[in-house]
Automatic annotation (TrEMBL):
Reactions catalysed: L-histidinol phosphate + 2-oxoglutarate = 3-(imidazol-4-yl)-2-oxopropyl phosphate + L-glutamate
MF term (GO), any: histidinol-phosphate transaminase activity
Gene expressing this chain: hisC
Residues modified to N6-(pyridoxal phosphate)lysine: K215
Class of this enzyme: transferase
Lineage of the species this protein comes from: Bacteria, Pseudomonadati, Pseudomonadota, Betaproteobacteria, Burkholderiales
Organism of provenance: Oligella urethralis DNF00040
Protein name: Histidinol-phosphate aminotransferase
Amino acid sequence: MSKFWSPFVESLQPYVPGEQPKEGEFIKLNSNESPFPAAPAVVAAIKAAADGALQLYPPAESEELRQVVADYYGIEAAQVFVGNGSDEALGHAFNALFRHPGKKLVFPDLSYSFYPVYAGLYEIDFATMPVTEDYRINIDDYCALDPAEVSSIIFPNPNAPTSVALGLDEIERLLKAQPNILVAVDEAYVDFGAETAIRLIKDYANLIVFQTLSKSRSLAGLRVGFAFAQADLIQALTRVKNSFNSYPIDRLAQAGAIAAFQADDYFQETRQKIIRWRDELSADLKALGFEVLPSSANFLFVTHPAHDAEALALALRERKILVRHFKTERCAPYLRITIGLKEACDALVKALNDYFSATDTK
Ligand SMILES: *Cc1c(COP(=O)(O)O)cnc(C)c1O
């Protein structure tokens, strides 16, 4: 804190990302990144884009990328917004769409911990809706909200950190029930087992969907994410973007992202492997006595009736494996474990086995 700070900065509560240790030091199962490298065609496209054109600003509105993505999903380019990671697209949406003085934004009590951070930054009043005892989002709770008091709703699908998905029929039921509330669906993990709501945007003016290349397309380091909605909502995001940074997506990112959508075989192959290893790890952890929530994501949310989650996280850390533990009340009994390569999943099971046999014989 210094006298030169704008006064509001002191009250900010910034997001705390998962630890990024030095390369090779740990098996990293703590940030939900892909264990696979980017597709070879993506790396080649980035190298080609670096050759000769970096002295020029990139296309400000990412027109070619937006067209490729629109074609991929069968929508219009005017229905696609590109952000520097979906975090940026989300941040612009909080500012441009969720900020209605006198009305609240509502999200689940267990959801992405960046939402309250953006709400704090943009001074948006919010309320949280508890997930059920079995950690599901109950759509009826949201259908019952009063549009005189609530401007917007946001939740991840599949939810994070719970990993549990909602069916598209449930989301459509909410869109129908609340035509005067904007519904934002954050689909960071959708490719691992849920159904995207993108095909509903043509029918629902109150829907906005977010996706990212960071998880299922192995490009967390490139920083590309999207918002999908009817064109009038996308225009609000574009107005905010062009009032802040006209060029958030650099030339390398635009070229890499285009190649990522063209490298569909690699995408299908890697995401299917992660789904298979997730289901195998889930079975292995259940055999060790863990309760595992039904996951549609690239991570598991697990608790053990006989072991404290924070102690488990520390024991794994000592064995050079990082998992994520959140200290908030409803998360505290749980660990969030990213699905790694098969060897990493097996190393996790072995480390847990070692720890359990060491503590049980004491
Ligand atoms: C990872 C994640 C994001 C952000 O992804 P980026 O595109 O890397 O900014 C957004 N929402 C949820 C729920 C996530 O887990």
